[in-house]
Amino acid sequence: MKIVILAGGKGTRISEESVTKPKPMVTIGGRPIIWHIMKTYGCYGFNDFIICCGYKGECIKKYFVNYKLHNAITNFTLDSCEKNGKVKYIDDLSETEQWNIVCANTGLETLTAGRILKIKKYLMDDDEFMITYGDGVSDIDLAKVLKFHHSHGKVMTISTTKPEGRFGTISIDSGNRVIRFNEKARMDQSIVNIGFMVAKKKIFDYLGDGDEMLEKGPFERLVADGQMVAYEHPGFWSPMDNIHDREYLERLWQNDAPWKKWI
């Protein structure tokens, strides 16, 4: 099964980092967040990725072209006499991911529905595939997500959760008198779509001309036809929308990152 990663946005809310790199390449523990996402999928045997590149997509392409150089625990020799230089890795102690990766240029200004349309040719032989965003990590059980998707027969499954509370709430009576302050509580949060989606090929019938965000017209049409079901994830999830999110995830990584399931 192939996994489509939406990785083409400009990441304006984390401009401190995205001015030099696309948001999926912003690091946690020295590794791009897209690496963390792909490692999560790899834990469940999902290793075929289609990365929808856009803004500064060359950074993503260069990273994976030079992946072994970036990540291997190894020495290497370089024969500069060879055309373009021949690298030979020696004393390689690293684990090698069994990833098959398509890095597809889907345009700088393309909206998310259009990005999926532009990689349709890579999915023509697949009855279903997974879709996720390139900026969030989770300890979600992807085997359970897929099993749930197969149980209902609809076109699309999204994964949802109530994020951990970031803000306390205030209770006010009818006279605007503050009654109490409440601690941050997950139960008080709204349910959100966290990515980690599964779609049948029929989703292409809902994407229109690709000039919409996936979460707008296409999702609304799926909902209107009763073709979208939500898998409820009770565990950890966090996006990396801004620099504070990155710092939060970095602190978790230095301790006991809940999404690190590959050790």
UniProtKB/TrEMBL annotation:
Query: Which GO MF term does the entry hold, naming one?
Result: glucose-1-phosphate cytidylyltransferase activity
Name by which UniProt lists this protein: Glucose-1-phosphate cytidylyltransferase RfbF2
A Pfam family assignment: NTP_transferase
List each copy of the Nucleotidyl transferase domain by range.
3-208
Keywords recorded for this protein, A-Z:
Nucleotidyltransferase, Transferase
Q: Please, which domain of life does this record's source organism belong to? A: Bacteria
Q: Which InterPro entries match?
A: G1P_cyt_trans (IPR046981), G1P_cyt_trans-like (IPR013446), NTP_transferase_dom (IPR005835), Nucleotide-diphossugar_trans (IPR029044)
Entry keyword Nuclease = no
What Gene Ontology terms for biological process does this UniProt record contain? O antigen biosynthetic process
List the CDD domains: G1P_cytidylyltransferase
EC number assigned by the record: 2.7.7.33
